[in-house]
Each structure stands twice: as C-alpha cells, then as structure tokens.
Amino acid sequence: MIEDLHFESPTHMLEKEIFLMDNCICTINKEKDEIGIGFLCKIPFPNKNKRLLPVLITNYQTLNEKVINNNKKYINITLNDKNIKIKLDNSRKKYMNSDKSVDITIIEIKPIKDGIYNFLEFDEDEINKIEENSNKQISIYHLDEENNITSTYGLINDDIDYSKIKYGSPILSFETLKIIDILNDNSKNYKEKYGSYINYLIGEFNNKKYINEINIRYKTDKEGEENIFGVKFVENNKNNIDLEINGNKSILTNRCKLKEGNNNIKIIIKNKITNLENMFCDCKSLKNITELEYLDTKDIKNFSYIFSGCSSLSDVKPLQNWNVSNGNDFNNMFSGCSSLSDIKPLKEWDVSNGINFSYMFSQCSSLSDIKPLQYWEVPNGKNFEFMFFECPAQLDNKTLKHFKVSK
After folding, report:
1. Residue 225 has pLDDT above 50, yes or no
2. Distance (Å, whole) CA 135 – CA 131
3. ∠ CA 1-20-179 to the nearest 5 degrees?
4. Which residues have a Cβ under 8 Å from the Cβ of 197 and sit 6 or more positions away?
5. For 141-155, how does the pLDDT look when each residue is reduced to its tens digit (9 = 90+)?
6. Which domains does the chain show, CATH number per domain?
7. Parallel/antiparallel/unpaired status of strands 35-44 and 120-121
8. CB burial of residue 231 (10 Å; 0-12, 13-18, 19+)
C-alpha cells in the first residue's frame, strides 16, 4: 500500500494515481528478511504487432541469476498488501535478462490470478524530451526507511533529493502516469542518471537482443538419432546458432541423439537469420513449438520447407503473430504435417509479397478447413501448384475464389 503521497495535486489525479500505483508497484521479498522494490510493466515487443509484453522489473541486486536459479520456482512479492507468488516457467523461466552492468533484471511473467493488478507502460513520447524539460512534473516510487512504498513528487531538477531514493525506482510522468525513466544510482543530480535505464530497456528490446532464445520440445518413442533441424537450415546457419539439449551444449547438427520421452532443446540464435528454409524439415518428433512465437521473422524471405514432414505437429497457434510480410517463398512450408487440422492462426498473415505457394499444405491429411485463408491477399503469387495436394477431398476450394492470381 502506498504509505505517503506528500504533495498537492488535483484530487481526481491523486485518486487515479493511488489506485494505479497500489496495483503495480510491489516489494520483492528475498531471503533473510531482505526486501527490494519492483514494478509490473509492459514493454513493447518486436514482431508482435505492437503487443506489450508483461514483465516484472527490478534492480539486479534485488533479483539476479543466483537468486532465480537457486532452485526457486516462485518469486514472492507483496502487491497491494497481498502476498503473491509469481510462478517461474521451468521451460524458459520467462526470464528475459539480468544485467549487472546496468543493475537491472527483467522477467516475463504470467498473469497473476485472484487479485487486481495493473501494468505500467513507457511513455516513449516523453523519454527523449525529459532531459530538456527541467520543469517536468514527476512522481518517483521507492522504499522509505521502513521499507514501505512511498512517493516523492516534484520537478525533475529543482526540488527532489535523489540521494535518499534507492536506484531501481520507477519515475513516472505525473501527467500521463507512464514511466519516463528509472533511477540508476544514488547521484544527487538527475542529469547524471538520465537515460541509462530507459534507453537500455527501449533500445535493447527494439534491437531484439533477447528474443531469439527459443525452447523446443521433441517427444520421442525410442532412444536414438532424431532429426533436430533440416540439412539446408544447418548448412545456412551453422555459425549463427548454439544448441543445448536438456541442458548440455551440443554442436549444431541436423541429427542428434535424443532420449526416449520429452527432450528439451534450447536454440540460441547469435546473429540475425534471414533464411528459415528447411528449419525443422522431417522432424517427425517435433510437437511443441510454443516459443517460436518469440522468433523475429520480419526480415525472413524464405519460409520454404520449415515444417515439412513434421507429422506430429498439430498446433500452429504460436505462429499466429509471425510477421511474414517480406516472405516470397512459402513452398512446402507445411507439407506432410499429417496431424495439422486447424490453420485458423494463420488467417491474419500478410503474404502479399508471396510468389511461390506450391505444395504449401500438401499431404496435410487431417486438414479440415481452409476458410481462414480466404483473408489472404496474394497479388504477387505466381506458383500455386499442388498447394493442397492429397488433402481431404471435402475441402472447399471455392473459399479461395477471391484470390487474385493474374500473375
């Protein structure tokens, strides 16, 4: 609970601010009665149609790799006087970044159940103006000497003693109630702190530094060698990818020895990839592709054979927000996906630059409906050969009658 809002402001604004802050500024409870401040926030996430990703942000000293990886399944926080556990996802830990050099930890979180809460957002319009505007009215949320959340309000440079405010505290525009910066040290002069946190957060996320670490699950019926990647994908990208299988590092190869049962594969993409051709071709045991939603695809031109022969793949919902607008080659993309029955997640794809759609859904023997594709615009399409070859006979191709195939 906000203990102290020691400033004058319009009543309606004050009430709005109290409600908002009560439900998104939190304390993080560490071991040995230590405590730190954090806040729930939404960060612009690339390749997600401007989707905002929910995260918990705090400083590195409060929450770091040692704390997170010390057999912890939960992070304990106090939010609006309620003790809440945020569950960590063991497959990815929803863990985005922890950086000692700028004293910050960012963790993607799942929605918190059984409680009212809000998310702060960044005011990107104000971020680059703040240094020039010393008369900007701001609110800073931080811990007082008794570790209660409190607020300090004032003008940026004139009447705030920053030395009494712990770094990691969020700074909000009092006008918009959005984040315009985060304190990065105990310096008395705000200008000495300006921009290091906020530009780091916005800049690094927009530069996609953290989004191409992906976990894929293969479920095998017997121990032995299995396809992990298609041959062409390995040849094109062997210098750009690291691979870990069940926690053990492995050289990148199209065939790896997997154990019977569930095998967790961590794919670490080190440099930009522009060609996904053959990525999971003939990976018959590939079943869960949930984290492919985090793959940045806006620069990809070749999507051919990505899932060709993935006979266990039945759910393509993680692909629904893929940016395929630069793609021109989609041939055999899902050919041989015999378990795939629902392609509704693909209905919003922008395939307007697509040229080759041949065999795209060939041998998808469980495909029951192609109506989602009626929304596609294909003005540049030149090759639709065998697009639905050996698909169920009852598919109604009249659904696609509006396709402009003059080329």
Report:
1. yes
2. 10
3. 110
4. 102, 104, 181, 182, 183, 184
5. 888 877 778 888 887
6. 11-206 (2.40.10.10)
7. parallel
8. middle
